[in-house]
Amino acid sequence: MKATIQRVTRASVTVGEEQISSIGRGLCVLLGISVEDTQKDVDYMVRKILNLRLFEDENGRAWSRSVMDGGLEVLCVSQFTLQCILKANKPDFHSAMPAELAQPFYNRMLEQMREAYQPQLIKDGKFGAKMQVLIQNDGPVTIQLESPTGPTDPKQLYKQEKQQQRKEKSRSKGPSESSREKAVPRSKADPSASSGADGDVSSEREP
Description:
The protein is of the alpha/beta class.
């Protein structure tokens, strides 16, 4: 899961001519849900969004308080385009979770945020709608966040899978002839053997 988090003095969401959500000082969070996301990603994102110290304290010391510390608002907007993978100049969104799965997933995340904080302070846009999002960035402060178990490039996933298969295949076959030859220690009489630094004691032992 990916999130673009902005510290704002105000933010709002309008659909058509109707303003459906607005907040004052707090955070505007754009969320991109991946096909690979699970409850672990939700737990991580909820914890981070609510606890990121992006605000000053009462003495003006920066990076000291979170939205929960200050009783501030959060506006969440689902944005699948954060899962974009460019193919040349064309965006590809196959890494994004399909809408019919993403909507209940997104709603559960909102519920979890409201349970962890004050529910009336968690606002959201309208899932799947064409929205106009007004963001008045304060600072500007913008944080890019990605859950540790979040998605990677599909090509990279395929490459990692092939590497793992090769490793498993080599382990099942046992050590190769060449590796067994390398494992045989060289004789102490071997003139090509190097003792390393002066005073180094060889780790070879007589059987």
